[in-house]
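Annex B. Sample input.
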Amino acid sequence: EASLYTISSSKDELFNYALFVTETGVLQTIRLAKIKDVILLTSKREILPQHEEIFNKQIKYGIQYSIKPYENEEIKVQLTPKGKELFKIIYLYRPQCSKIEGDIYYFSCSYAQVEQYFRRFGEHAIVLSPNKIIRSLKNYYYFANRAYNKIPVK
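Annex B, continued. Sample output.
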């Protein structure tokens, strides 16, 4: 059971998404193609203002990336000159930048969006905050490095 907030398309218009709140108060995003059945209920339930705020932020920055209620810390990413070039040319799923101060780019979107987008930049994009993304990327690169170290190079 869920209360629908809206249906909207991603910025690239590849897919449409439904934003809703479950009966237990969990915010969710689902691609319309994944919905099998819809049954309309007679009971009415309101969406809380704090949920509306999160959904509006998600629509603005990337509807396909769920924003968790705890994801409220501004994301800071330091880009090298090569990282800045990559940021200009890799546009698909690029997070919307809220401000730039020198080499530091600021974002207010989903942590998952920033993490997935900047993974391909390697050393050319270093997340400075929040710690949750830093830890996740450290683990990602650590295990990738371990896997590659097992392969003999000729």
